[in-house]
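Thread: Newbie trying to understand structure tokens

Hi all, I'm a second-year student working on a class project, and my supervisor (Dr. K.) asked me to get a predicted structure for one chain before our next meeting. I've only ever worked with sequences, so writing a 3D structure as a token string is new to me. If someone could post the tokens and maybe explain what I'm looking at, I'd be very grateful. Here's the chain:
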Amino acid sequence: MKIETHAGFTGPHLELIALSEKVSRVLPPLWPLEATVAVNPFLGQTGQSLSQVAALLGRIGGMRVTMPNAWYRARIADGRITDADLEAALAEAPAGAPATVAALKAAAEAEDATPEALPTIAHLAQEVSGVDWPGLIEARIGAWAAGYFDAGQALWQVTAGRGAYESWQIFASRDLTPEISGLAGFAAHVATQPGRARVALSLACDALGLKAAAAESYFHQLLLGLGGWAQLARQRLWQAEMDGRAEPITTDLLTIRVIWDAALWAQYGDRIAERWAEIRATHATPPRATVAQVAACVLQDAAERAAQRDLAGVLEAEVPERAGARPQLQAAFCIDVRSEVFRRALESLDPGIQTLGFAGFFGLAHAHRDFASDVSEARLPVLLAPKLSSTATAPSAAEADQAARFGARAARAWGRFKLAAVSSFAFVEATGPVYLGKLLRDALGVAPRATEAPAPQFSAEFTLPERIATAAAILRAMSLTQEFAPVVLLVGHGASVVNNPHASALHCGACGGYRGDANARLLAGLLNDAEVRAGLAAEGIAIPHDTVFLGALHDTTTDAVTLYAQDPGCAVSPDLLGRARAWLQEAGALARAERALRLPRAGTGDAVAARSTDWAETRPEWGLAGCRAFVAAPRHVTRGKPLGGRAFLHDYDWRQDEGFGVLELILTAPVVVASWISLQYYGSVVAAEVFGAGNKLLHNVTGGVGVVEGNGGALRVGLPWQSVHDGTDFVHEPLRLTVCVAAPAEAVTDILARHPDLRALFDNGWLHLMLLDDAGRIAARYRGDLTWQGSGDRPGERKAA
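---
Reply by user tm_fold:
Sure, no problem. This is what the structure looks like when written as tokens:
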């Protein structure tokens, strides 16, 4: 990291700037609405335990990181959490935990102790002036940020092309709102600040008497208080670093917030100096969990052990084995928990049907330009960088592509006209009836006939040896190297919803928040290529000449599956294709009936599909709510077992994994992505005010990048309340993910030892890790520090791997 120098800089100044860079990386990134990606809100704290994070975030954010005590009391009372669960959790508890099960139960009976965040300078100024300075700062920074981060919604950007700090300095030096509210000379104060953010940050810290010992904690508090704006800045930093670029935006944003405090200090400092000195001293000390916070974390662990006991019971159940004959149909789905319901339904129809689970981007790390699009979309997990490129526009379709682009641009211009303040009311008056027709069509389920997008294709730079190597690696990672069916479906997924700013959150997280159809179709085309198949045969993977791979798309809102049977090289006999379509339709009906049991007002399942076109439906589907387990094992371990749409299922056979490279890939990529999803749901429940997106009914899209509640302020992050709560109770139980792997302990231990960031997730309890035997029974539990506890061991005993 290169830090700019300045004539007036000292060693302490450089230390403050280094801390500002460090703190910016403890924030979770926020992806824009067009390609929403689930993110672990505790991403910067995975090196600490839950109780340590409870102390930290309680002190700087005033939030809990566990459920209210009543939630645990109810589970103890009805037997879902047993004394054995409590005892096992206590055996692993940190220092300061209750000594006995009875004491832990007593802690659950206590009234909740809500953490109180340390006041900022703005809060202290509010206490002595009676002016809501924290609220005003949030509103004014939000007003500037909505324009600065705008992604096409605004009609113009006054400060376009400038850095964040420079942009804000122009905005704030002309903003009279603070002075009208009582902060004298604020615009002039901003105008006279240095033009370089790091210099301005150092001078503001000098004014506040903020030294390095307290700065890290206070900087974290200020950035956390900026909500989604700081996290959106973090995402830009994330993307810049992925591209090998520098990006000062997070330090710019921190500087903006500290300058506000310095201005308030200049006006109120003599009245708040004593309190501020005490607060600085507290920030300079490590946060310590209270007795109540530690007890709550132990209760959380007990709740997760109870869920693991239920999972073990489901996995241990015996089911009839699949016949050994060649399967009639194979279908590879994304590991997404919604696929579990459909896979189980499909396999129940015929013993000749076999399904597989694999990350929904199907191993293709590519940037895709869709038909009639000017945008190259990263259709892969955000942990990876694109290595390939693809397009849905063949050279022969160039004219049609250009015509469609012109139409799309006209539509965007029309949309901008609708947003113009001078035209909005006139627009409603004049064109309201046009939208009445669309509303009626959607309400009646009469949709215009959809045109199938052209088949995507890789760029010419993707050479034949590279295509062969990629195909071989993907098939081995899928544990699909033999016994191919005549028809192999590669099923991506997406969601069909209307009037939902968070629609992309229902698409494929493994595809960067986009639909997975392009990836599925690209892989099908790759595996149907005669030259690629010849190369695969030389690699020891012989695909029968009558096997056809077919791309497909599973609509998780309606449980309809679209087959791309017209793609080049995907010719399937009418009989086989008709049988596959019939099975998929029947499986969709079964899946809808099961999902209807959880969806409000869904009846027997007949009404599920209609929810996708209902403009007033706040819960068209539950997304990944309920996720609690990740299983990497052969399909026979989970086949036919009622996992209830709560488990990520990744096919894996360690006996085919020479060197355990596939296992390493699963643990370092799909498991980490699943942990982000699980912990986003967790945070949106336990700390909804900070890590949740609030009420859908109050949302307004701002800048095309995110939502605010009402007409401005902080950008909301995480999931809307309606995505985790049915109006009466939570549909998502906030449980940290349990990862179950059918593999030797030595192999897993070796991978953890070589990946410290992955190991930290397990060592600090953000994920739980279990080993499965060949029958699907839990054989060992990871205890941290590269040690394991066997299923027959006492909870307090440790065994080295």
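A couple of things are worth pointing out once you decode it. The chain has a mean pLDDT of 90. Residues 693 and 719 are 5 Å apart (CA to CA). Feel free to ask follow-ups in this thread.
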